[in-house]
Amino acid sequence: MSDALPYTVVEGIRCFSPEVASSYADYPDDGFDLTDKSGESSFWVRSRNRLFKKIVQNNLVTSHKTKFLEIGCGTGGFIQKIVENENLEITGSEIYLKGLLYAKKNLPAVEFVQFDVTKGVIGEAFDLIVAFDVLEHIENDVAAISNINKMLHEGGRVIVTVPQHMFLWSQLDEIVKHKRRYSRRELVTKLQENGFDISYCTSFLFVLFPLMLISRMFDKGRSQSKSDDLALGKRVNFSKILNWIFDCFMRIDEALIGLGISLPFGGTLVVVAKKC
């Protein structure tokens, strides 16, 4: 791509947006530590990885290896679930260097780049781009969607997930520096207006939605006296038994979505779209 951003190499990683690599303006830096340490113990992380892996597998190119990019890969947790798929040529990108250093340590054979997707494109074109729980951290999400479209081959696909329903807004959204929670109409419209046709759209975290709603209502009224990293850990860490119970309920969501059902509401919105 002739309009690709220039890059510099920092700690062995190509940095296309080095000016923001250590700013942590849109995500708490302690979040990477927490994810790397305890991500696999979380029912939410396990469930989303299972579901997203299946959706990725359903959207691979059949004629050749799928050139794959994850926007906002964090510490590389999802890529670890798909790295053994020989039909994928994987690149992981993250705006913050701290997450990439964890990812590179965990997956030394994978190509990782530092990149602010609102600022332009990198010099490659992809068949499939995913952005899992990323757009809500970005002030100019329209620029991000537009640049994702530019980095796709004709007919390429994007898989996007975002937190859903502004009435669920709570202190947790503020701690992790969300800019918004989305309605289905808002995300679908933004994708359509930036060169995408919608292939599939569903809510996720459907069965557990009543518990999530109650939890968020209590969280709105909770006083914030602890540091953000301690408060974040308290809100996302559960006992082993609760993680096991919630994991079982999440498998119902996964099964329904696997049947092609579009769930009407839930804490997360999942959209698969094709470049026009």
UniProtKB/TrEMBL annotation:
<dbReference type="GO" id="GO:0061542">
    <property type="term" value="F:3-demethylubiquinol 3-O-methyltransferase activity"/>
</dbReference>
<protein>
    <submittedName>
        <fullName>Class I SAM-dependent methyltransferase</fullName>
        <ecNumber>2.1.1.222</ecNumber>
        <ecNumber>2.1.1.64</ecNumber>
    </submittedName>
</protein>
<keyword id="KW-0808">Transferase</keyword>
<dbReference type="InterPro" id="IPR029063">
    <property type="entry name" value="SAM-dependent_MTases_sf"/>
</dbReference>
<keyword id="KW-0489">Methyltransferase</keyword>
<dbReference type="Pfam" id="PF13489">
    <property type="entry name" value="Methyltransf_23"/>
</dbReference>
<dbReference type="GO" id="GO:0032259">
    <property type="term" value="P:methylation"/>
</dbReference>
<dbReference type="GO" id="GO:0102208">
    <property type="term" value="F:2-polyprenyl-6-hydroxyphenol methylase activity"/>
</dbReference>
